[in-house]
Design brief:
- It is built from two helices and two strands.
- The chain is mainly alpha-helical and 92 residues long.
- It has two domains: 30 residues; 61 residues, High potential iron-sulphur protein (High-Potential Iron-Sulfur Protein, Chain A), CATH 4.10.490.10.
- A two-stranded antiparallel ribbon has the order 1-2.
- Strand 1 and strand 2 form a beta hairpin.
- The termini are far apart.
- Bound molecules: iron/sulfur cluster.
- The site of iron/sulfur cluster has 14 residues, from loops.
Length: 92
């Protein structure tokens, strides 16, 4: 195999990779986020406390298929469990 052929093959492979890169970047699912500091401040736990849990709290924002959601008082966090609880649990 000549050096020219090898170089041509390398450029072709690099071109394909560069062409596919935006497809890979834009089809990647958004990464999940947790707000660790706020969770700690509000003593968030992923299990209910007695009958109190996120699904019965007015601050809970249900998520999509996986069941996890968000919370209006914990910004930047989309990993709130429907069965979770924190000291801001609110039904009024
Ligand atoms: S305020 Fe607390 S209990 Fe209510 S949804 Fe948010 S994390 Fe859950």
């Amino acid at each position: 195999m000549s050096a020219n052929l090898t170089r041509r093959k390398l450029w072709k492979t690099a071109g394909i990779a560069l062409t596919l890169m935006p497809i890979v970047v834009f089809t990647r699912p958004a990464s999940a986020q947790t707000n660790t500091a706020m969770r700690a401040e509000l003593k968030y736990q992923s299990t209910p406390k007695d009958d109190m849990k996120c699904t019965t709290c007015l601050e809970f924002v249900p998520g999509k298929a996986d069941g996890l959601g968000a919370c209006k008082v914990i910004p930047g966090d989309d990993e709130i469990s429907p069965d979770g609880y924190c000291i801001r649990w609110n039904t009024m």
